[in-house]
Amino acid sequence: MRISVVIATHNRAALLGATLEALCRQQYESGDEVIVVDNRSTDATPDVIERAARDFSVPFKHLHESEPGKSPALNAGIAAASGEVLALTDDDVVVAPDWIPAIRRIFEDPSIALVGGRVDPRWERPAPRWLRVERQDGYSPLASPLALLHYGEAQELGARTAVGANLAVRRDVLDAVGGFATHLGRRSGTLLCGEDHEFCQRAASAGFRCEYRPEIRVRHWVPAERTRAGYYLRWFFWSGITNAVLERTAGQPSAGWIVPPYLVRRLLTAPVAALGRTIAGRPADAAAAVMDAAFVLGSISQRVSDGWRRR
Fold it and tell me: What is the dihedral of CA 183, 184, 190, 191, to 10 degrees?
């Protein structure tokens, strides 16, 4: 089984070195390869890539993608890959020492088509009191803006998603359902996301077996600015926009309503819930209610915008 590691990178020279160093120490086999796609970086990223390439024991490809956005860069790397399994991670991630061997073991089962793994934090500074990521059965929804993932025990993904920081998929699945949607994913000036979710749902809808496997582990860098309330509010607002775009893409009409009544109810009850939880001394639960309100506002704004365009 040949594995192709694919990474898209943009202006992460300060973090990319640690990512490539961890990948360099993996246990590879004949036919494996590593592909790094530089998505219009203007910092020292090319130098970091070229220095790291000298130390790899397997073929190393350094590609360039001029179309901005993670999805176009990933798709370019996928197109150049020759492996039967593609292992995806990010340029601010440090993979576990057994990352490649663990992926190889899982895909020895021919029924498995796509696997998402656990993503733990590498905190730049301790999380604030209101930001409670861990809970008994895995990570809370407040982990999502940090691209952290922990669903507990191994399980079918179902309606859940893996994240691109730690995702592996068979080449024939990509050939069957296509690559990552280029109208989704982070772009300059936005926090639009959803490309990972949309891809996983396409694979699952096509009948492929998609799983969460916690033994595939990575650690994701969490900069201090992403633990601030302002960032969280923006992220959940844009997550609401993403959700509305995904529903529109999937052709899920809301029974003729531009703004469904359930969204209005959520928006009205969220502030009351946040206040009650604050009084009760539950800051993390209060924060979750506030973020839900931001999500609903984003969803409503996108639905209203779509409604005006349809007129």
Answer: 170
Cβ neighbourhood burial of 245 (10 Å; 0-12, 13-18, 19+): buried
pLDDT of residue 258: 72
Strand, helix or coil at 114? Answer: strand
The answer for residues whose C-beta is within 8 angstroms of residue 55's C-beta and 6 or more apart is: 24
Non-local CB neighbours of 131 within 8 Å, separated by 6+ positions = 142, 227, 232, 284, 287
Domain 3-226 falls under CATH 3.40.50.880: no
Q: Which residues pair with 88 in a beta bridge?
A: 6, 167
Tens digits of per-residue pLDDT, 260-279? 888 889 999 998 999 999 99
Reported as a single tens digit per residue, the pLDDT across 277-292 is 999 999 989 999 999 9
CA atoms of 206 and 216, how far apart (whole Å): 24
Q: Which residues contact 296 (CB under 8 A, 6 or more apart)?
A: 240, 263, 266, 267, 270
The domain spans of the chain are 3-226, 228-310
User: Confidence band (pLDDT; 50, 70, 90) for 256?
Assistant: very low
How many angstroms separate the CA atoms of 75 and 182, rounded? Answer: 9
Cα-based angle 240, 242, 244 (whole degrees, multiple of 5): 70
> Which is nearest to 119 in space by CA: 84, 155, 145?
145
